Structure formats: structure tokens, C-alpha cells
Amino acid sequence: MRTATAATLALVLVLVGATGAFALGAGGGGPTLERTWVSDTGRDVKANHHAPAAGVVDGRGMVYAPISGRADTTACAL
Fold first, then answer.
1. How much of the chain exceeds pLDDT 90, in percent?
2. What is the rounded CA–CA span in Å between residue 75 and residue 73?
């Protein structure tokens, strides 16, 4: 590999890395996650047959995580 090619490749990698770092929040001021609710239900969850759902309600992003009970019970809640 010639010196000019190696230097160009190094420059491209540095620029891609800097762009990725900025996009992931190293530049500051990015969006933050806020926990608004935590389940306090003491359930023995080993599997889940409901799919999680995500969407926008009244302009606000929401995520719904289902809670399943044990397979031999009816303790299933969505």
C-alpha cells in the first residue's frame, strides 16, 4: 500500500470515528432516556409469549413491555 493511500484511509477512518462518536452523544446535548415507571410486581418470569410494543401516543413515544406468569398459571398480564 502506498503512503498516500494509507494516509487517506487513516483520515477516512478518523472522520468516520469522529462522526460516530458525535452521533452517539460524545458531542453532548443528545436525547436522553427517562424512566417513568418500574414494575414492582414480584413475578417469576421465565418466558414471555407476548411481544413488546412501541408507538407514539399523543405525540409521545411509548414502549409497552408485557409481563408473563409461569406456564402452569393464569398469572399473565399485558
1. 8
2. 5
Q: Rounded to whole angstroms, how far apart are CA atoms 78 and 76? A: 7
CB 64 within 8 A of CB 57: no
Biggest alpha carbon distance in the chain?
A: 68
Q: What is the mean pLDDT of the chain?
A: 75
Collapsing DSSP to helix, strand or coil, 21 comes out as: helix
- Taking 70 as the threshold, does the pLDDT of residue 6 lie above it? yes
Q: Please, are residues 7 and 29 in contact by the beta-carbon 8 Å criterion?
A: no
Determine if the pTM surpasses 0.85: no
Residue 50, phi then psi, degrees to nearest 5: -100, 145
* Rounded CA separation 66/14 (Å): 42
Cell of 73: 398459571
